[in-house]
Write a sequence for this structure.
């Protein structure tokens, strides 16, 4: 069960440590049968465990090992070049203003921007995302933030929702500023190794009023199988270090 309610349910239990079935039924406004089905799915997926009188969160050390086994490639990317990603994210958060409607993609670089937003003090911010990690951590965002979670088919490698249903959700929305990353960037554009992912991000670029590429300096000069767009489709390129000469002056942030 990978749905928004399952994510919220798992987060709710994790924040409280343990809950009774009655408490969960009331908190989520669902029937007795529905909450038991949801609990059974989360137990099967290793998200929670049953205890006397209800359910309990998995201890952090067990959850961490479980996550690594579940998707080691994503976990590896999350930790790789971490300091550079944080440096780019700190620059990017300065481009966000109260009242913005922003899109955060499912890249590990943009995840660190989500972490910067969590620590910020925005009075009014709408976040749109297809990233499972961003959605799961949304209770950690300032209470003044509003989430629009894009659904669809879950992609394990990207830890994100993609596909026709995700694009349909996206096309009903208005995006003020989009933040995305890429496998690499060259004078010819920026790239992904995933066809469906590149198509989805091209639609984001077409819908958003402004688009920003967050990228670590080790990715400059690297291309990929699928083109996301030309550099001219962006409003800014934000990196941890100096930008190469082929980045146009108006895109330097």
């Amino acid at each position: 069960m990978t749905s928004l309610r399952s994510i919220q349910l798992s987060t709710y239990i994790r924040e409280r440590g343990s809950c009774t079935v009655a408490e969960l039924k009331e908190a989520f406004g669902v029937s007795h049968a529905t909450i038991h089905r949801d609990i059974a799915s989360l137990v099967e997926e290793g998200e929670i465990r049953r205890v006397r009188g209800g359910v309990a969160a998995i201890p952090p050390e067990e959850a961490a090992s479980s996550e690594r086994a579940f998707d080691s490639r994503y976990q590896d990317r999350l930790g790789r070049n971490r300091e550079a990603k944080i440096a780019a994210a700190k620059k990017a958060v300065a481009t966000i203003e109260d009242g913005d409607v922003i899109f955060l993609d499912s890249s590990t670089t943009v995840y660190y921007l989500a972490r910067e937003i969590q620590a910020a003090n925005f009075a009014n911010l709408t976040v749109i995302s297809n990233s499972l990690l961003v959605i799961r951590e949304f209770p950690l965002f300032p209470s003044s933030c509003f989430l629009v979670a894009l659904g669809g088919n879950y992609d394990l490698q990207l830890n994100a929702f993609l596909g026709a249903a995700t694009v349909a959700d996206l096309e009903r929305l208005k995006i003020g500023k989009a933040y995305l990353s890429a496998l690499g960037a060259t004078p010819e554009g920026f790239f992904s190794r995933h066809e469906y992912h590149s198509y989805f991000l091209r639609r984001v670029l077409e819908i958003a009023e402004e688009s920003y590429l967050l990228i670590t300096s080790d990715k400059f000069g690297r291309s990929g199988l699928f083109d996301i767009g030309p550099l001219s489709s962006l409003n800014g390129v934000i990196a941890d270090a100096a930008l190469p000469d082929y980045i146009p002056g108006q895109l330097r942030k």
